[in-house]
């Protein structure tokens, strides 16, 4: 959002040293959660090679993508799409032929962010896995970074590499989120991960198979099952980022009892 010619939007970048930690799905779920707090949210897929935010959001085969903008065929305004809960998505695309004509050294992310600032108040940027200095160095100056990791040593070790790089690039890191968490004595604890990364943990998202089912429907877990521990954790993270209160949604026990009674034949269908 521009105010007196100044970009007042909030940019939050999600990074992980390792792929497969659920970074993109968390970006989407958190975007929907923020929208439920009545924020205008835009999701940007900045993975120019292995993008899949469009697939997760149910935005299949968009006519114009960020690839088209970067080769200067289209304007950024043409690749902003509205999906569920009113959030907007800027997809990257999967056309390798177009990718050949993109020189990452000449991408002005600041210019792109300014051009789409009117579309939202909060921009969630899904960064590519690994170390991609071309993308990192082009992020807006006021970017807040959140590291996404699992509780395994390889995942945390890769997150540490990203943390070191971000410090060298003077990118502010708000903290880290443990994603797809489950209790196992062989995994690193929250305190151990905090000691390794030397940044605070700002969220712990439990593992839930329903996240995969919701993605198959092109929906967020907070829509499909708002009372699940995972949904409540995502909503709490959104509330914390906004400095707002959130009261966890309790499971509908009456509804559960009713379904059981119907199953055993104590209630009519």
Question: Could you provide a short overview of the structure?
Answer:
The chain has 269 residues and is an alpha/beta fold.
List key phrases describing it:
Rossmann fold, single chain, alpha/beta, two-stranded antiparallel ribbon, globular, 8-stranded mixed sheet, 269 residues
Structural summary, described in words:
There is one protein chain. The protein has 269 residues and is an alpha/beta fold. The chain has one domain: 3-Layer(aba) Sandwich (Rossmann fold), CATH 3.40.50. The protein is 38% helix and 17% strand. The chain contains 12 helices and 10 strands. It has helices at 23-36, 53-56, 66-70, 96-99, 109-116, 133-137, 153-168, 190-197, 209-216, 221-224, 229-242, 253-263, and strands spanning 2-3, 6-7, 10-15, 41-45, 81-82, 88-90, 122-126, 144-149, 172-181, 201-206. The strands form 2 sheets. It has an 8-stranded mixed beta sheet with strand order 5-6-4-7-3-8-9-10, with helices on both faces. A two-stranded antiparallel sheet has the order 1-2. A hairpin with a 2-residue loop joins β1 and β2. α1 (23-36) crosses α11 (229-242). The longest helix has 16 residues, at 153-168. The chain is globular, with a radius of gyration of 19 Å. The chain starts with a strand and ends in a 6-residue tail after the last helix.
Sequence-ordered SSE layout with sheet pairings:
Elements: E1 2-3, E2 6-7, E3 10-15, H1 23-36, E4 41-45, H2 53-56, H3 66-70, E5 81-82, E6 88-90, H4 96-99, H5 109-116, E7 122-126, H6 133-137, E8 144-149, H7 153-168, E9 172-181, H8 190-197, E10 201-206, H9 209-216, H10 221-224, H11 229-242, H12 253-263
Parallel strand pairs: 3-7, 3-8, 4-6, 4-7, 8-9, 9-10
Antiparallel strand pairs: 1-2, 5-6
Helix pairs in contact: 1-11
